[in-house]
Amino acid sequence: MPLYEYECRDCGRRFEKLVSFREAKSAQECPGCGSRSARKLMSVVASIRKEEGGASSCPTCTSGVCNL
Ligand SMILES: [Zn+2]
Q: How far is CA 56 from the centre of its chain?
């Protein structure tokens, strides 16, 4: 399954999520505030390590919430 990056419209949190192609088209739930208004970003996979705010995006997990 592809890894997509999302950004929450409500709290601005970014997170990555492994979703099926079908799921990718629907809104994803934000792990920070629970809102389902997160939108898919154009950047996929390769840009993850370059994103600033690394404290909230863990390169070793797909959820981005473990904060290692
Ligand atoms: Zn949120």
A: 10
